[in-house]
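Hey team,

Sharing the Dehydrogenase run so nobody has to redo it. Sequence (328 residues) first:
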Amino acid sequence: MSLRVGLIGYGTAGAVFHAPLIATTPGMTLQSVVTSREVPSGVQRLDRPDQLWEDHDLVVVATPNRTHVPLATEALHAGLPVVVDKPFAPSVAEARALTALAAERDLALTVFQNRRWDGDFLTVKELIRTGPLGRVVRFESHFDRWRPVPKDTWKEQPGRGEAGGVLFDLGSHVIDQALQLFGPVRSVHSEVNRHRDGVQVDDDFFLALTHESGFVSHLGSSTLAAHPAPRFRVLGTTTAYTKYGLDVQESQLKSGLRPGDPGFGEEPESSWGLLGDASVPTKHGCYQYFYNSMVSVLRDGAPVPVSPESAIAALEIIEQATATSEPR
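Structure output:
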């Protein structure tokens, strides 16, 4: 029997990412969406989250950040496993409490850190693992955008409980990737800024993470990057890898392409990165891995694809960064 999934929220996260990925996962059915918007044919539109607490096998929370913890808490109390979109929670304390509740009730809880399955990130992992770079001496990761005028969205709302700003939004991705590559962090240097006129949340950051190994990751994001920095720049004792541009899966999903369609997750040769002077094929991105894994979690008791503890580690860095470098 197909697993019945209820999705809360149908903005960009719900409509562009979760809904199509769930709908194309063998063994899963997108049964219901809680939203005021029009939903795909064959999917039930509901008005309230509590209408999901019966006749569903999994709840996905893809709503504004301030609602992640309350909605996930309700779902867990109703006895349902939960996927929470990133960022996991507005604070480490709330994330830990939610994780403890899931453990107490013996329910699966995971966080949608989809960019662990970006093609360029998978390429970087492979290059570091297989050794053509030699000993890696510097890792730089940027997730830049050109948005000089603030948008009137919840992501631009001030207040710690809102978890708005680019550090929570894109920092959640680049921090998580650095932790996956180089392990836990022992210290954080941060520069968190507000540059755009009238903005009330951070719109630019730079982080230098010193990992427990002594390795340092340089991470950044800006909404004023008319000329974006390389997405990845990895320097080694033998050569370097440089990659521009973002993973193709988001734009493909927006255009209607789906996992299983020809070319999904495949980057054109013109966008491949350089290893020294040689072009290196970008590995295929595979966001579908997340929900394929969730089928195994719910049916076979497999480990969740993203542990809550790993998401808490990223939140700890965000909290340290904001505590030591208030936006200016």
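The chain has a mean pLDDT of 96.

Ping me if you want the raw files.
A.
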